[in-house]
Amino acid sequence: MRKRLLLIGGLGFLLLILALRFAGYIPFIGIPRNVEGNSSALSFRWAYRNLAKIRSQPILAKDLILARTEEELIAVNAITGKEVWKYSAGSIVIPDNMILVQDNLVLVRGNPNSALDVLNLQDGTFQWRLPNAPLDGMIGGAAIDNEKVYVSRGRSGYVWAYSLNGGKSIWQSPQLESSFVNMVSRPDGLYLFNTLDLIVLDSETGQVKKYLKNKFEGRQPILSDDLVIQQFQKMLIARELESGKTRWSYPRNTQGAIGYFGVVNGKVYASDSCCEIIALNLTDGNLLWRKQFDSSIDSTVVAIQDLGYVLLQNGSIRAFDLETGGNAGVISTAPPTTSGYHLDKGLVTDATALYATFGNNTLFAFAK
User: Fold this and answer.
1) Which residue in 91, 90, 126 sits closest to 106, CA to CA?
2) Distance CA 100, CA 118 (A)
3) Do 265 and 303 form a contact (C-beta atoms < 8 A)?
4) N or C: which end of the chain has fewer CB within 10 A?
């Protein structure tokens, strides 16, 4: 009996050692990631490691970094990397970036079929819940302003507005032709995009102020002043927000279709489906420079002062001069790969520090 107990104990100890040694291959724990080298202007600040995989890009909220894991919403102190709070938000398998922040509130979707939970930003305590409406479909799009949260549900073609102070229903829009994933709240109204149209609702009443049909064909609309930048037929296109008239377009290059893109300091930075970044003038779309990397690009460009940073699929972060595209260093991490998903990795900056997720269980911070 004693020998049997010793044998069982020995096997248990061996299994524990193997689990720790190969923790990266246990799906629940995720792949441990470490910084292997750094020649950039930023120094390693901290690494936060969670037991479950991080399933969102990092979200900057005052002095906190928020991220969605497979079961929870976590809040980490941006300076120290210490966990401040976590909230059991519901189980997700695929990444979900529906995390909205306004003043001292944060809204998180439990899973694609559930409600929006509203939490206190500072301590993560539950405030109220916007329930799901099964007959209307899941919450596919949401936007927020100082007073209201707006949601579009999958089947109904309606948009609803609710008070941030308790969730009281304020209005329901007329029935529209589709649901909307891309919603943007601006002082002059609520902007709704599908893959073809732009509808602007009055934020106070929910009535339609403008309907530009078939004027905004494309995906991933980004609003910059009076322009809407979109991916359209393997190229970038900029249209005037007021009319939908095309201001400029940039054709695809030899490497492939446009992937990530964004507006930084009055310029458009975009990547193709492989390894190149292009810099365009925002006003006319003229090419300023293009730069080739040795791995596919896995994030939009973010900026700290005069340097841009981008995440690559080989697990590195590359720094470059925003004006010229010249090399400005690299942060290397291991393992040399990132998640195959689009939404669970990325960079965010508060203009002094850089925060990164790679699609595993680790959140990093780098700063000068």
Assistant:
1) 126
2) 9
3) yes
4) N
Q: What is the residue-averaged pLDDT of the chain?
A: 87
Secondary structure of residue 246 in the 3-state scheme = strand
Q: 3-class SS at 362?
A: strand
The rounded distance, in Å, linking the Cα atoms of 218 and 193 is 9
**CA-CA-CA-CA torsion for 327, 328, 333, 338, nearest 10 degrees?**
-50
Using the 8-state DSSP alphabet, how is residue 186 labeled? E
Whole-number Å distance between alpha carbons of 95 and 92? 7
Distance between CA atoms of 218 and 196, rounded to whole angstroms?
7
For 88, the 3-state DSSP assignment is strand
pTM of the shown model: 0.87
Q: Which tokens go with 277?
A: 């970044």
Residue 293 in contact with residue 278, Cβ under 8 Å?
no
Buried b (16+ CB within 10 A) or exposed e, 320-336: bebeebeebbbbbbeee
Q: Are 268 and 306 in contact (CB under 8 A)?
A: no
| CB-based contacts of 235, cutoff 8 Å, min separation 6 | 249, 250, 251, 252, 257, 258
- 147 alpha carbon, distance to own chain's centre: 23
User: Does residue 107 sit in helix, strand or coil?
Assistant: strand
Q: What are phi and psi of 136, to 5 degrees?
A: -95, -10
Span of 75-84, 172-181, 290-299 with lowest mean pLDDT: 172-181
pLDDT of residue 318: 98
CA atoms within 13 A on the CB side of 195: 4
Closest CA to 76 of 353, 368, 341: 353
pLDDT digit string, tens, across residues 65-124? 999 988 899 999 999 999 999 999 887 766 677 899 999 999 998 765 668 899 999 999
